[in-house]
Amino acid sequence: MPRHAGSGPGLGFPDRFTMSLYNAPFEIHVHGDVPLRADVELTQLQEALKPLWSYAGARSLADGAASSYDDEPGIRYDNKTHVLHMCWTVGGDEDFRQSLDDMCMALNELAERGAFIEVTFYDTAFDDDEEEGREDESRDDFVMLFVGPTPAAIMQVQRDLLIQDVVNLMERHFDGSELGGVVQEIDKLFEDRFDALVESLQVGRPPRGTGNPGSGGRGNNGRKPRHLH
Fold it and tell me: Do the domain assignments include residue 17?
């Protein structure tokens, strides 16, 4: 079984919220740093993050900002740097994915620039020390989410992450100075994708005043080793 759930410091408010993980099929860890506009107020942030803290059963962001584990800082907002920090675990099920989508749509409206958020689903039926020899497979899953004020800002983050991954992999076999052409090809792929997006928005442009389409999204799912920090 997973270790016992505790609580963390969250936003620094006195209220503390404890969420049991024993009966939840997943331990869900949300991790990321999102730069917000300087004019964002705490009330706006609370509303944007409502899909998270309300899912945890809290009545406010102050109540729900604490993680289920003591060694995780939870959900924090730095007023000086205007950055939202998330290192937060909650017990939940597959329906938490809808809460993530709703959160991303809301954070798009507050973000200063593009950012990514990592979400890991840990199967609570599995324990790291007991996995060897089991015939059934764990349902662990990993999701990469992207938020930003515009589709271009989100694509910039996606591009930077992809180049970092590709360069790190290829530098095992090639010198970094030899990889300029690879980076150019990746840039071209994203330029083509952005041009196609712009074209689709132009064709289906809504009447003025009806608002812009959301730019939140979910990356490719993949398996990620269990870790708690």
Answer: no
**Residues 73, 80, 51, CA angle at the centre, nearest 5°?**
50
* Domain shared by 130 and 169, yes or no: no
- How many Cα atoms sit within 13 Å of 84 on the Cβ side? 35
pTM, 2 dp: 0.72
Give, in order, the Cα–Cα distances in Å from 123 to each of 93, 147, 223, 228: 10, 26, 12, 13
Per-residue pLDDT tens digits for 163-191: 888 888 888 888 888 888 888 888 888 88
The count of domains in the chain is: 2
Q: Are 84 and 189 found together in one domain?
A: no
Cβ proximity of 229 and 88 under 8 Å: no
> CA 29, CA 229: separation in Å to the nearest integer?
10
Cα four-point dihedral sign 158, 162, 142, 61? negative
- What residues have CB less than 8 Å from 121, skipping those under 6 apart? 26, 27, 28, 139, 140, 141, 142, 143
DSSP 37: -
Sign of torsion, CA 71 77 82 85? positive
Note whether 91 and 19 are within 8 A (CB): yes
Facing residues of 74 across strands?
Answer: 87
pLDDT for 25-37, tens place per residue? 999 999 999 999 9
Beta bridge partners of 57: none
The widest CA-to-CA distance across the chain, in whole angstroms, is 60
Are 108 and 48 in contact, with CB atoms under 8 Å apart?
Answer: no
